[in-house]
Specification:
heterodimer; A: mainly alpha; Arc Repressor Mutant, subunit A; 2 domains; 9 helices; 72% helix; globular; B: alpha+beta; two-stranded antiparallel ribbon; CU044_5270 family protein (chain B); CU044_5270-like (chain B)
Chain lengths: 164, 324
C-alpha cells in the first residue's frame, strides 16, 4: 500500500478544489481557504479512517467548520465574485443568465439552494448529499425538487402576456 | 437543464488558482504533524434490544449498600497519573466483596447528537437477569441546541432522535453485546477470566484484524467495566489498561451530568472514562470519535458539557430485585 504521505497528497490533489468550491458558498475567500486547510489537516490525522469515497466526508467536515463562522449564509454577491469566465460567442447572454441564476439561488431558502448545488456541482447521490446537509434523504429530495422548480420558473422566458 | 446551469456557476477558476497557491503550504503543514494514526476500534453497537441502555452496564465498583461500599481510594496521592488511577481502581475492586442479586439494574442518562448542534438527553432504567427483565419508561428528555438555527433545523426535520419508550416487561429474551468480533451474553460476561494472560488472550481473540491492541483494550473496557463481569475480572482489565501507552489524565474533569471526577482518555483520544476517585466508581463514558461515522456524527457536533459524540452517565447500577 502507498505510504500515508502519498495517499494524502493524492487526496488533496483530487479534492481540494471541490471542497474549496463548497466553502466559498459560505465564507469569503481567505476564510474559506483556511477552512479547507483545516479540513485536510483533520483528514491527515484521520487518514486511516477515511471512507473509500472521501469527498462527502470532506464536505461534511468543511460544513461543520463553516458553521462556526459568523455570517456563513449563502450570499449572491459572494458567488458573483467567483463566477467563472466562459469563452463563448454569446458570453454576454450566458453571464446574464448565470448571474440571474445566482441571484435566484441566493434568494431561495439556503437549504434548498445547497441541495441543488451539492447535487449539480459534485454529482452526489441524494443519500450522500443528505448526510452532508444533515437531513433525511426524503427531506433532501423535496428540497432539491423545490430548488429546481423555483430556479426553472424564475429563469423561464416570459411571454408578453405574463409580463404585463 | 437546470443542473447544468448550476454546474456552470461552480467557481472553478478560483479553486484552481487557490489550489496552486496553497498546495505546498497545506501539505507541509500536514506532514509536520505526526503521521496519520492507526485505524481505531469500531465501537460496536449493542445487538440486543436494549440498545443504548445495554451498552452501559455498571461501573468499576457497585455502590448499592453502605456495607458493601469499598474503602475509598486516597484521593490526593502526590502524583496522579492515568496509570496510578487505574491501578488504584483495580485494588479497590479486589477489596470489594461480590454483590448478590437477581437482576442487573442500571439507570443511565444518555446523550446523543442526532443533528449538528443538537443534543438530546434522556434517562432510562433496565433490569435484566439474563432471560427476563424490565425496561422502565424513558424519562427526563431534554434537548439542547448550539444556537437558534440548530433548534429551528431540528424542528423542521421533525425532531429526530427523540427517545420514546413506555415501561414494559419481557420474558425469555436473549440480549447480546458485540465486543470486537465476539457476541457476548450476560452469562458470558459473568464468566470472563480474571487471570491476566487468559483475559488478554480473550481480548486478542475478539480483536478485529487491523485494530491496535491498546486501542481495542480500551474500547472493550467500556463494555466490560460496565457489565456484571466479576470484580476480579474488572480489576485485571484495569491493570491491562494501566499498561497502555499514551493515556491522558484530567484531574478536574466533569461527567456529562456535571459530577466532578478524574477522566482517563486513551491514546486515540476517542474513549474517555470519568471516574470518581473516592470510590473508583465509573461515572461516565464519553465517546469522542468524531469521525467514527464521519457523516452521521460529524465533527462540530456539540456535546454537553462541551463534549462531542455520545455519552453515557451511569446514575445507578448493580444487582437488585425487580421493583414493586
Amino acid at each position: 500500500m502507498d505510504d500515508p504521505e502519498t495517499r494524502f497528497t493524492d487526496l488533496y490533489d483530487r479534492h481540494y478544489r471541490a471542497v474549496l468550491g463548497y466553502a466559498l458558498l459560505r465564507a469569503d475567500r481567505a476564510a474559506a481557504e483556511d477552512v479547507v486547510g483545516e479540513t485536510f489537516l483533520i483528514a491527515w490525522r484521520r487518514l486511516a479512517d477515511l471512507p473509500p469515497e472521501p469527498l462527502p466526508w470532506l464536505l461534511g467536515v468543511a460544513r461543520n467548520l463553516l458553521r462556526k463562522q459568523r455570517d456563513s449564509g449563502i450570499r449572491a454577491e459572494r458567488l458573483l465574485a467567483y463566477l467563472p469566465a466562459r469563452a463563448a460567442p454569446d458570453v454576454a447572454d450566458q453571464v446574464t443568465e448565470r448571474e440571474a441564476a445566482l441571484i435566484v439561488l441566493a434568494a431561495m431558502a439556503e437549504a434548498d439552494a445547497e441541495a441543488l448545488i451539492l447535487t449539480s456541482w459534485y454529482g452526489l447521490t441524494p443519500r450522500e448529499a443528505a448526510k452532508i446537509a444533515g437531513c433525511a434523504t426524503g427531506t433532501f429530495t423535496v428540497r432539491l425538487h423545490r430548488a429546481r422548480r423555483r430556479l426553472t420558473e424564475a429563469l423561464r422566458p416570459r411571454t408578453l402576456q405574463e409580463q404585463s | 437543464m437546470i443542473d447544468d446551469l448550476v454546474k456552470s456557476l461552480r467557481p472553478d477558476d478560483v479553486t484552481e488558482e487557490s489550489y496552486r497557491a496553497r498546495r505546498a503550504d497545506d501539505l507541509t503543514r500536514a506532514f509536520a504533524e505526526r503521521p496519520a494514526r492507526r485505524r481505531r476500534t469500531p465501537l460496536l453497537a449493542a445487538s440486543g434490544l436494549l440498545a443504548a441502555a445495554a451498552a452501559a452496564f455498571v461501573a468499576f465498583a457497585p455502590s448499592t449498600t453502605v456495607a458493601q461500599r469499598p474503602a475509598p481510594v486516597p484521593a490526593a496521592t502526590p502524583v496522579l497519573t492515568a496509570r496510578s488511577v487505574l491501578l488504584a481502581g483495580a485494588e479497590t475492586l479486589e477489596r470489594t466483596p461480590a454483590e448478590t442479586g437477581t437482576y442487573w439494574h442500571e439507570k443511565i442518562r444518555t446523550f446523543t447528537s442526532p443533528m449538528d448542534g443538537v443534543v438530546v438527553a434522556s434517562t432510562a432504567e433496565t433490569w435484566y437477569d439474563g432471560r427476563d427483565g424490565r425496561i422502565g419508561p424513558v424519562r427526563d428528555v431534554a434537548t439542547t441546541f448550539a444556537d437558534e438555527r440548530a433548534g429551528k433545523a431540528w424542528r423542521a426535520e421533525g425532531k429526530p432522535g427523540l427517545p420514546v419508550g413506555a415501561e414494559r416487561s419481557f420474558k425469555g429474551m436473549v440480549l447480546a453485546w458485540g465486543i470486537g468480533t465476539k457476541e457476548v451474553r450476560q452469562e458470558d460476561l459473568k464468566k470472563l477470566p480474571a487471570d491476566r494472560a487468559a483475559l488478554q488472550k480473550w481480548l486478542d481473540e475478539a480483536r478485529p484484524e487491523g485494530t491496535g491492541k491498546g486501542a481495542f483494550a480500551f474500547a472493550a473496557a467500556r463494555h466490560i467495566l460496565t457489565s456484571p463481569a466479576s470484580n476480579a475480572t474488572r480489576a485485571t482489565l484495569l491493570r491491562i489498561l494501566a499498561d497502555q501507552n499514551g493515556l491522558r489524565l484530567d484531574e478536574n474533569a466533569k461527567d456529562p451530568v456535571g459530577r466532578p471526577g478524574l477522566s482517563i482518555t486513551d491514546a486515540t483520544g476517542d474513549h474517555t472514562l470519568v471516574v470518581d476517585p473516592a470510590t473508583a466508581k465509573l461515572l461516565a463514558y464519553v465517546y469522542d470519535g468524531e469521525d467514527e461515522r464521519p457523516v452521521d456524527t460529524p465533527p462540530g457536533t456539540t456535546m454537553i458539557p462541551a463534549q462531542k459524540g455520545t455519552a453515557y452517565a451511569y446514575l445507578e447500577s448493580g444487582w437488585s430485585d425487580l421493583p414493586g
